[in-house]
Design a protein that fits this description.
This protein is of the alpha+beta class. It contains two helices and eleven strands. The protein has two domains: 31 residues; 151 residues, no CATH class. It is 19% helix and 39% strand. The strands form three sheets. It has a four-stranded antiparallel β-sheet, with no helix packed on it. It has a four-stranded antiparallel β-sheet with strand order 8-9-10-11, with helices on one face. A three-stranded antiparallel β-sheet has the order 5-6-7.
């Protein structure tokens, strides 16, 4: 009479063990098959590298140096500051400052300085074209109303049938030379921009 309960107990214990083992095996397989991807705490958009540069451009006669400084602002734009330094007395004067997006930064053309060093022009890309600004090098306004002159906008107001294709440099002490095309795509004439009078003079000779 005592042997039957023992068999039942052994059978029940064995069945329970097998059931538990089965649950453990299934759970282990689920964990293996559904291992979560490791969490990345790195930023998806890492901060952009800040730009802090300083460049010096010497005038052709060596008497003046144009100093260009670029500094990144908190909004991501670049604050550009331009100063002129005299080699004779070592003085420096700030002539222009502008906040720009990274794809619209002002640059200094190789022919930027006027022959007398009294003026210079800078350029920057906008809407697929280059825009040119003419400034005095002594820090004073170009006219009583404006610090600088933008060649492209001033020309477009007076000569809507043409568009500027290239600013080539200085044709005299106060004259900036540029080329044009007509609005229908034909090659247009060359022009002078007179910095002192802010006027345009059409030339008979085409400059390249």
């Amino acid at each position: 009479m005592e042997k039957h309960p023992s068999k039942i107990f052994i059978f029940t214990t064995l069945l329970s063990s097998l059931t538990i083992t089965g649950f453990v095996f299934v759970a282990t397989n689920k964990i293996k098959n559904h291992t979560p991807e490791p969490t990345s705490y790195a930023s998806e958009n890492p901060p952009e590298e800040k730009i802090n540069t300083k460049e010096e451009i010497l005038a052709p006669d060596g008497k003046y140096t144009l100093v260009k400084e670029n500094k990144t602002k908190t909004n991501g734009n670049i604050q550009q500051t331009f100063s002129i330094k005299s080699q004779e007395d070592k003085t420096s004067v700030e002539i222009f400052t502008k906040e720009s997006a990274k794809d619209n930064l002002l640059t200094v053309p190789f022919n930027s300085f006027a022959p007398t060093n009294k003026y210079l022009f800078l350029e920057y890309p906008a809407h697929g074209k280059l825009v040119h600004l003419v400034l005095r090098t002594d820090g004073k306004d170009l006219t009583k109303d404006n610090q600088f002159a933008e060649i492209e906008s001033a020309f477009a107001e007076k000569y809507a049938d043409y568009e500027i294709t290239e600013v080539t440099g200085w044709g005299g002490y106060n004259l900036v030379v540029f080329n044009t095309n007509s609005i229908d795509g034909k090659i247009g004439p060359s022009w002078w921009f007179d910095v002192t009078s802010l006027s345009f003079i059409r030339l008979s000779t085409k400059f390249n």
